[in-house]
Amino acid sequence: MRIAIVAESFLPLMNGVTHSILRVLEHLQERGDEVLVIAPSTQDAGAPDEVYGAYVHRLPSVPLAGYTNVRVAMGGVHRVKRILAEYTPDVVHLASPFVLGWRAAQAAHQLGIPTIAIYQTEVPGYAGRYGVPFLENWAWSRVENIHLMASRTLVPSSFALRQLRGRGIPRIEMWRRGVDTERFSPDKRDAGWRASVAPGGERLIGYVGRLAAEKQVQDLAVLADVPGTRLVIVGDGPQRQSLEAALPDAVFTGFLGGEELARAVASFDLFVHPGEFETFCQTIQEAMASGVPVVATGRGVPLDLVENSRTGWLYEPGDLTALRSRVMDLMGDDAKRRAFAAAAHASVQGRTWSALGDELVQHYRAVVSAGATSGGGTSDRRERLPR
Fold first, then answer.
1. 3-state secondary structure of 106
2. What's the predicted TM-score (pTM) here?
3. Are 207 and 297 in contact (CB under 8 A)?
4. Per-residue pLDDT tens over the stretch 308-321
5. Using CA atoms, how far apart are residues 250 and 193, in angstroms rounded to an integer?
6. Contact 85, 112 (CB under 8 A)
7. Buried b (16+ CB within 10 A) or exposed e, 56-94
8. pLDDT (tens digit, 9 = 90+) per residue, 33-44?
9. How far is the C-alpha of 42 from the C-alpha of 72, rounded, in Å?
10. Average pLDDT value for the chain
11. Is 25 within 8 Å of 95 (Cβ atoms)?
12. Taking a C-beta distance cutoff of 8 angstroms, is the pair 371, 379 a contact?
């Protein structure tokens, strides 16, 4: 197949959207598909022009206010339309579309190219966290318009499915996320690394993710004095300085990737994720694959990933007393924590990216075969038959 992936964010910025795109690119390269990635420009001179065989077309961009490493692509629909018209893809994959993705949805519609829209970021929910709640309705209107125009929308969780269906979005299918169970494994647990961050032998409560308002990392302050524990925060972002001031006894590792990340996660005793706006939290699956039980907020994708009282605990959003209670329950009972850890590890086996990649390709094939454009119409463009 010939696929154009339009990415709201991409390398060198690493986040859940970028991670998913990289796994998709890897799978499509193995299949022998042709792929073009359209993404915002970057000021990093070392950013690659080609990733897993896919050429990366960068569009001029500006930094997002207050979050300078996130860039927003500039320009109008015509620029994206010209790129797509020249490339002539069989299908356009809109990765977490909002700004650039909205232009690409319109461009593909005008060209009669079917689109798969991946709902992965609850952008409207971020509005309140960033102090602009009056923008939430406008943001939902944008999200709805994108997904109404898409040939098919893929969501990663039952929560997201209900959320979009409740807003009248048609043609929705589930497409979950895979996890690398070879890279993330209990075998990566490292006593030396544990001693380096907790020389007193404390048990480790870990968090991995962006240090940004929507992740609600500040909620972890209620865990700062849990007896016999050390809080370890992996990641970077605009709130790092304020979080370091608020959590002076926590260990901040900065961004970790590759084997460094796998070692850190496997070395935790408990993984905690307080964010309420996760359409899919890859780090929860990575913790579970590493044999680490999870405590997470009971909203969004954790409802699908964490089985309460077996692989971890869920707590009511905003109930920080419950968060602390759930953490103390597991940190104070080694046998229960080991049982939860074993169940968590077993629960993610078989969720391979290869299987999820094959599933995604079937969605591509379905919209191409239907000749679908926005609203499920037909296209008069030249057809290519996918293998």
1. helix
2. 0.80
3. no
4. 999 999 999 999 99
5. 15
6. no
7. bbbbebeeeeebebbbbbeeebeebbebbeebebbbbbb
8. 999 999 999 888
9. 10
10. 89
11. no
12. yes
Residue 345, classed as helix, strand or coil, is helix
Contacts of 10 (CB under 8 A, 6+ apart): 17, 18, 21, 37, 39, 40, 56
The tokens describing 380, both together, are 């008069």
Residue identified by tokens 């993705």 is 101
Q: Is the pLDDT confidence value at 383 over 50?
A: no
Tokens of 96: 């977490």
Report the interhelical angle of 320-331 vs 334-347 (nearest 10°): 100
Per residue in 116-135, pLDDT (tens digit) is 999 987 766 665 555 666 67
Pairing state of beta strands 61-64 and 67-73? antiparallel
Which of 103, 126, 92, 97 is CA-nearest to residue 372? 92
One-letter amino acid for residue 111 of the chain: L
- Smallest CA-to-CA distance from 374 within 116, 133, 118, 197 is with 116
The stretches of the chain forming alpha helices (DSSP H) are: 16-31, 77-87, 100-111, 123-129, 136-149, 158-165, 191-197, 240-246, 258-266, 282-289, 302-305, 320-331, 334-347, 353-369
CA distances from 218 to 93, 275, 319, 331 (A): 35, 10, 13, 20
Cβ-contact 328, 311 below 8 angstroms:
no
Whether the bond into 124 is cis, omega within 30 of 0: no
Extract the tokens encoding 285.
């699956």
Q: Using CA atoms, how far apart are residues 105 and 154, in angstroms rounded to an integer?
A: 15
